[in-house]
Amino acid sequence: ECKGKKRNPLHDFKKTGELMLIKVNKTLEVKTKLLNTTEQCAKRCSRNKGLSFTCKAFAYDRVTKRCHWLSFNSLTNGVRKKQDHAFDLYEKKDYVRNCIIGKGADYKGTISVTKSGIQCQAWNSMIPHEH
C-alpha cells in the first residue's frame, strides 16, 4: 500500500518560524548553498552530505532559497537567537528533545539529572549501578 512513498526528511526536525541562530562562538561551523526546498536541506542535513561537521540544524532563507546548515542548535553555548522574517529554523529533534525514548542509546539531548535532581550515571559506567 505504501510502495513508492518516501519518508519526508522534515519529520526529523522541529520547525520554528521566523528565527535564525547567530553564532557568537567563532569555532562553530556553518555551510550554505542555494536549494529549492526545505526537504532538500533536511535530507542533506540528516545525511551530513558534503558537510565537514555533524549537522544539528538548518535555517532556510525563503527569500533567497538558501540553506544554512549549522553545527549547532538553539541549546548550544555561544549561540543567540535572532528574529528574522526571511528564515525558518529547523532543529534535529534528537538534539533538542528533553526525553529519552526506549533505552536511550541514541539520546543526544542535554538532560543529565534525574527528576529528583540526582546526577545521571554515564552510559559507559557500571558504577554505582550495573546495566
TrEMBL record:
Residue ranges of domain Apple in the record? 2-94
Q: Gene3D superfamilies in the record, alphabetically?
A: Hepatocyte Growth Factor, Plasminogen Kringle 4
- Span of domain Kringle: 98-131
> What Pfam families does this protein's entry cite?
Kringle, PAN_1
Q: What GO CC terms are in its UniProt record?
A: extracellular space
Entry keywords, A to Z = Disulfide bond, Kringle
| Source superkingdom | Eukaryota
Recorded GO MF terms: endopeptidase activity; signaling receptor binding
What InterPro entries does UniProt report for this protein, alphabetically? Kringle (IPR000001), Kringle-like (IPR013806), Kringle_sf (IPR038178), Pan_app (IPR003609), Serine_protease_kringle (IPR050759)
| Name assigned to this protein | HGF factor
Q: Which organism is it from?
A: Ptilonorhynchus violaceus (Satin bowerbird)
* Encoding gene per record: Hgf
